[in-house]
Amino acid sequence: MIGTWQALVIDCEDPDSLARFYEHLLGMVRIDNDPDWVSIGDAADRPAIAFQAVSPYVPPQWPGHLNPQQAHIDVRVKDLDLAEDQVLALGARATGEGSKTFRVYLDPQAHPFCLVSW
Known about the structure:
With 118 residues, the protein is an alpha/beta fold. It folds into two domains: 1-57, Signal recognition particle alu RNA binding heterodimer, srp9/1 (2-Layer Sandwich); 66-118, 2,3-Dihydroxybiphenyl 1,2-Dioxygenase, domain 1 (Roll). 19% of the residues lie in helices and 36% in strands. It has two helices and eight strands; from the N terminus they run βαββββαβββ. The chain has helices at residues 15-26, 80-90, and strands at residues 7-12, 29-34, 37-41, 48-53, 73-76, 93-98, 102-106, 112-116.
């Protein structure tokens, strides 16, 4: 092993608002809170999801590769319909893509993520 996972870093326009979305979605807390960098996680000594301000921000397009998604998060849920209602209320947008076991959404800054249920 060379190292351990520190964070998944997502480029965005507004780190504060995007972190707030994922805090509610995943039940995580703020670890770092700077204007250009916000990270959230279960605890300060555990891997985090970080949101980094970039300018100009060019959102990914899903599906497609002109502006590729680069990374996405799968969120495991018990009830897809209930979870869908909740993420839409937080500001996510449904893409209409998916199957019986997963659905694809865009967060408030157009990063794709999936709700999955097994």
